[in-house]
Specification:
heterodimer; A: about 400 residues; 19 helices; elongated; B: 10 strands; about 55% helix
Chain lengths: ~400, ~325
Amino acid sequence: MTLDELIEDRRILVCCGSGGVGKTTAAAALAIRAAQLGRRTLVLTIDPARRLADALGVADFGNEVRRVPSRKFEAAGVPLRGELYAMMLDTKRTFDELVERFAPSLEMREAILSNRIYQQLSDTLAGSREYMAMEKLYELYAEGGYDLIVLDTPPTKHALDFLDAPDRILDFLGGKVVHVLLKPYLMAGRIGFEVFRWGASSVFSVVEKVTGVEFLRDLSDFVLSFEEMYDGFKQRAGRVKALLGRKETAFLLVTAPGKFVLEEAIFFYEQLVEHRMHVEAVIVNKVHLPVERRERGAGEEDLEDPEDFLPEPRRRALAERMAEAAGDASLRPALEKLLQNFAHHRVLAKMDARNIQMLREPIREGVAFVQVPLLPVDIHDFEGLRRLNDHLFRAA
Amino acid sequence: MKPSSPLLMRLLLVSGKGGVGKTTVSVALALAAAKRGKRVLVVEVSPRETLPRLFDAPLGGHAEHPVAENIWTLNLDPHLALEEYLETQLHVRALVRMVTGNPLFQRLVEIAPGWRDLLTLGKVWHLERQQDPKKGRPRYDLIIVDAPATGHGLAFLRTPKAFVEATRFGPARTHSQWVCDLIEDRSRTRLLLVTLPEELPVNETIEMARAAEEKLNMSFEDVVVNAVVPRLFTEREAQALASLRRNPEVLGRVAASMEDEMDLADLLETADATIGRRALHESYIRRLRSQVRKRMIELPFIYRAQLSLEDLRGLGEILLGQMEAE
């Protein structure tokens, strides 16, 4: 399926990948294209660069959906048939809203929101950004009102972080672990008695001994108040996960040619497939694409050093010959640099091609595979996003 | 030795966003220090150990491991550091195993925030105190920490302080305070930020530098801008080429004089791309300089598939030279 077909066909596009590979710009560019093609589109971004947030008009509106004015499209010369909305996710605020939604009473709600442990956890708990990104996606999807939602995910090492984070966090908050650990404190707040297991109590005493007791008391207050909301949270997390696995949701893997980043992308891909998510496209950004006006000689596959491509004596002789042809000997140093720069580029292009091949192998057939060249300018405005789309949708 | 020399420190914390070249900078500095007779330990915290590979040495895991003359590496495993720490607290190995082997404890550890950072820095604190009993001096002159890319900026370095603030008593609070004392000691510890001349890394570095000034009470002098595309042409060369390009007839002769496998138009196109990248890099460095009042050390982009030890040595000399400059 091509990117255009995905845009037409699906309800949710999730852009995932390591940090710094251009996920946010890819998400924004896809959303612009979708709006351009007539879909009512929302792009949900996590941590956009300030100028990109400005370009979309969401910089000062954390957690609020804003409509991107159509004049932005006009100014960039892009015909707009649909509508584009954008939102910048605020993890803490999303978590607060969720608490507000499920808190059984006003007092409970205030007790949780003002709890020190909650304030720490909602922001820094491993996976809370991923959890809230999924939560917000579900909320906006369930509200209806959009043909397509494009989600930019937080940079994570493991794809599993955003598939598993909700369960992991909820199991922690509502699960056995905390309850057993905190039993003495929980009991102080509730009637009941139970002999707790030897192992658990020892673990508890170690944690208490090392961390200091007060911390555990705060935690137990929080866990106690959270208990009543647990089922609501849990059910909802189950629905979020189900939504991600549906056919109407497509995952787009965004990556860049660095070896390390590509290895992460392969790992990501395998995890997603294992979890039966529909990975439908791979976008490789910032590629040194070869300039191909002329067929190259063979035997360059292992090219690793510019000196191997064009050793200094040859470079020198060639530059001299070219300067002679120009009838200007003073051109030689510039021509030599011109040749050397070309050799540099050849090495980078070969390096990227080799690395990308590594990624291509494990990807199943039928997944769109798009390479975007390293652009001499960074993308931070509408005009740039439109140009990015020229590359993304070139094949289409 | 210059008073500003990083070689006078005990601990260098190399921090920055993922993928900006923290490992490159850590190893380059280690090579420069080792060359001057310092015994250096480089610490990484990584699920995939990389440091020994750069030295063509076998992997050493969570153990100090010699990889070159005067250089040791350690891939710090927070889980093992936690076990070591519990052992110092419980004194009985069997008890430690009982605790860490407990599934409930494992679940708690899996989810609890911050403990990895805390134990990582705790282990570094412990390493800093190691003595060479025969010679009666510290085991390492310098410890360089290739800090984990947490995605939370400098939260890593704030963890001990946050822990001290969040708890009221208990041994872990006392120990975290000791770690804070080391990190904040300007005569022993220095922070080094690494970045790339690109939009997101630069933005993040501006924020990190601000946070370091406001929230971390530690010595922070230098920002390393890694992989800067070097300037291609001098002013005169650029002009000469420009006038060549305006003359199609001469251009045709030059193209004809070239070897078969290269095309002049390709050469010119790639040169334009490099010049564009260079201009972009310069604009980001300008922005960084205007926002962060620190010494900027630029490291050149090296056009090779894999940096060699020789490349790293060269980068180390640039780094040290600039860090020692007045």
